[in-house]
Structures are given as structure tokens and as C-alpha cells.
């Protein structure tokens, strides 16, 4: 379980860093670029902050997910091994054996068509 938490923290930190860089890039392009500069009739600050910056960071997100994130199996999480757990593993309970389980095919829930 510690491995999953470590991976999740690293990926969360990378995501926050990317979000902060996005805001910094937006702020720089929106407030540092002089309003007189234009590109194709559009103000350059607008082109950079609203068109180029989002496209750049979508690409960076794709790269980050592809190369920095790892696949984690959530169905069978790693358990810390202890002598008590190894000696008597508890079998997984099936939902049908649970006392609170209600079968969807009970007579009350089945709709009958009258012909």
C-alpha cells in the first residue's frame, strides 16, 4: 500500500507543478506582452495566453501522463506482510453471501407484461 501512496503523491506533485506553470505562463503572456503587438489582427497577449498556452500545456499533460505516470493495480492492492496475515489469510467475501445482498431477480422487482 505504501508504494501506491508514494506513486499517487509523486503524480499529484507533478500535476500541481504543471498547473502552477500553466498559471505562470498565462500570467506572463497576458500581463508582460505589450498590448500593441498583434498577430494576424489579434492582440499577441490574447494569442499567447488563450490559444498557444492551452495547446502547449495539453501537449505537456499528454507527455507527463505517458512518461511520468505509472499504472497501478487497484483491484489487488499490495499488503504489508506480517506474520499474522500470512498464517491466516481471510478469504474474499462474495456479494451474494452478504446478508444485506438483495438479488435483482426477486419477484417484487420483476415487471411482468400482460398480453
How is this structure best summarized?
With 115 residues, this protein is mainly alpha-helical.
Explain what the structure shows.
The protein is mainly alpha-helical. The protein has helices at 2-31, 44-67, 83-87, and strands at 38-39, 42-43. The model has no long low-confidence stretch (mean pLDDT 78).
Pick out its properties.
mainly alpha, single chain
Helix content: 40-55%
Order of helices and strands: HEEHH
Mean of residue pLDDT values: 78
| N→C terminal distance | 56 Å
General form: elongated
List the helices and strands and how they pair.
Blueprint: H1 2-31, E1 38-39, E2 42-43, H2 44-67, H3 83-87
Antiparallel strand pairs: 1-2
Helix pairs in contact: 1-2
